[in-house]
Amino acid sequence: MKILGIESSCDECAAAVVEDGTRVLSNVVATQIPFHAMYNGVVPEIASRKHTEWIYGVVKEALDKAGIGPEGVDGVAVTAHPGLLGSLLVGLSFAKAFAWARDLPFIAVNHMLAHLYASRLLSDSPELTISVLVDREEVLYPFLGLLVSGGHSIVCRVDNFDDITVLGTTIDDAVGEAFDKVSKHYGFGYPGGAVIDKLAQSGNSEAFRFPMPKLDKGEHHYDFSYSGLKTAVINQLEQFRVKGKLTQPNSTAGSADITRSEGADIAASFQKTAVEILLRSLFRAAEDTGLKTIVAGGGVAANSYLRSRLAGQKELRCIFPPLDLCGDNGAMIAGIGYQYLVRGERSPLNVTASARVGGFKRRYP
Ligand code: KG4
Ligand code: ZN
């Protein structure tokens, strides 16, 4: 069964064809990064306009690369939430029209659950690199999920592809958001996660000591926070300025106030702390629940320090999506869509998009 998956929740206009929920036949991601980079963040109005311009071509390319025409599609899946409303509506409307025109089963899915599903995808394509993957055998529920993106940071118990219980979450910024904001302040580039990850490779992660949040007790046992870390790292830039480095001649790190090697040290020290904050909650949850399998998903799951730290855990089995499927893509939408469709579920064609979605926050007693 070949499912067309469409994703337009933020700044990636994406479509893919996936067979039987796992085999990626094509995966096309048209990124809008160059159009948002000058603003150091996604501009919703630009994003939805670009999706409108690109969606037809992206879907056509996904079908072409899968070697099928519209008649070869057996069902359509699309992201309906959470995300930028204007952007979501473009993909959702296109998907509805496609399904209606060909009288196909149609399902609207949750973007974050799809991120968690991404590690189940397989590909023969050389374009999709499988890196730290430990084991590709069927993931057995229950396991611990680590959902880390630009908008969410969640540690959860996962009992099925559509059944998660949030154990811990951020009480302020998402982890990807912290990467993006630090990068913006230092002028490292946009989006911040991949840039900081790369810069950190040449830096010393012990050069700066940034604070870990104190959230170990009571109801916040598995929660985390990024605003303190973000503020400390940004304040460090002020310290560089105060030290009179404003005229540094060999600065190439992005900010005019620091050298490249200072920038790399900041990136490495920040990245290490940001990941250790996640891991502290994750390891606590693993210990308390006894769950030994961890499945990661979302843009930050591409982070090399996070991947190597988890791959080094002897008692835990850690599964990551292929690098190319950590960020937003249509394959994860098609994959999870297939699971709903084979269960007989369908969405009505009047289903609408929503920016936020319930069930992704912890309920405090
Ligand atoms: O899942 P995603 O593509 O979109 C959302 O659903 O938000 O995640 C995007 C986030 C951005 O904040 C980006 O900076 C971050 O993922 N990111 C990374 C890396 N690659 C992307 N963060 C850390 N290290 C990376 N290598
Ligand atoms: Zn995402």
Give a description of the structure:
The protein has 365 residues and is an alpha/beta fold. Helix content is 38%, strand content 18%. It has ten helices and eleven strands. A six-stranded mixed β-sheet has the order 5-4-1-2-3-6, with helices on both faces. A five-stranded mixed β-sheet has the order 9-8-7-10-11, sandwiched between helices. Strand 4, helix 3 and strand 5 form a beta-alpha-beta unit. The radius of gyration is 21 Å and the shape is globular. About 3% of the residues have low confidence. The site of 5'-O-[(R)-(carboxyoxy)(hydroxy)phosphoryl]adenosine has 21 residues, from helix 5 and helix 6.
**Amino- and carboxy-terminal Cα gap:** 43 Å
Instruction: List the helices and strands in order.
Output: EEEHHEHEHEEEEHHHHEHEH
The proportion of strand residues reads 15-25%
Radius of gyration: 21 Å
Query: What is the arithmetic mean of pLDDT?
Result: 91
Counting H and I runs of at least 4 residues, what is the number of helices?
Answer: 10
Query: What percentage of residues falls in helices of 4 or more residues?
Result: 25-40%
Bound molecules: 5'-O-[(R)-(carboxyoxy)(hydroxy)phosphoryl]adenosine, zinc ion
Main β-sheet, in a few words?
A: 6 strands, mixed
What strand line-up does the widest sheet have? 5-4-1-2-3-6
Please give the number of β-strands.
11
Low-confidence stretches: 126-136
Give the structural class.
alpha/beta
Outline: globular
